[in-house]
Structure formats: C-alpha cells, structure tokens
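Figure 2 data, in text form.
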Amino acid sequence: MKKYLAALLILSACGFTPMYTERDTDIYVAPISGINGIDLRNSLNAKFGGMHDAGATYTLTVDLNEPVTRYKALEPTGDASWQEIVLTANYVLTVGDTEIAHGSESASESYTFVRYLVAANASYNNAVQNTIGVLAEKIGARVIAETYRYEQNIGDKK
C-alpha cells in the first residue's frame, strides 16, 4: 500500500492526469451495419459511458468488414480442427465537419472447429463475440486518446 501511495504522490506532482478519469466522452457512435456491427456499436457505447445522441461533440463512424475465417490446423484426413476469425474495422472520428483521426484496427481469435454443428456454431459465435470485444477496446482506446489530444491542442491555442 505504501508503494502505491508513493507512486501516486510522484505522479500527481509531475502533472500526470490519466486519460480515463473524470472526463466526459461525448462521442456519438453512428450505426454500424450488420449483427456484428450492432454488437460493436454497443461495446463502443459502453466504453464511452453510454449512448449519446447525434448532437454529441464527437462523431465516430465505423465500417466493419465481414469476418474472415482461416484454417489454422489440419488433420491428416484434411479436415480442419482449428480456425481463426479475423475482423477488421475502419473508423473516422470527427468534430463537426473536421476529421481529427482515422484508422483501421483488426482483431482475431482462434477457435476449435468440431464436426458437431451446434458445438461448431457455438465455438464460432464465441470467437466472434470475443473478437468484437477486443476490436472495441482497440478502437475505443485510440478514440479516447485522440479526443484527449484534440482537447489539449484546443486548450494550448486559447
């Protein structure tokens, strides 16, 4: 506990302020097409502290590509036993009509591919949901960093 307090005192003395504390992330996430897009939008809204309306300070537009499945392991019979799901999203962050950031993020997860249809579908769906969660974390962290940088630059100009 003493080490934690010492680190906190040192960081507070240097002017360090974490990006995630006590900040209103007024970010509107535009609708994203598809079932996976709905899940990604919900995850991003949760990361930004809830759903905001279109009048928010920032607007995040995301284009989510369809999942790509790759074979990772083959049995001697030629059947796949492991597969990988890859999701890629392109995003643009704007303030009004001004673009302040854009980029592309990818996330992937491997899953067991089995012969039983129900188990194979469950394994695939779990991999997709986990990949969406990772993608939301990556995009969310980048967007919060960009909004923080934008606000710092605006503050420096005043």
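Caption note: The beta strands are 27-29, 58-64, 68-74, 80-95, 98-112.
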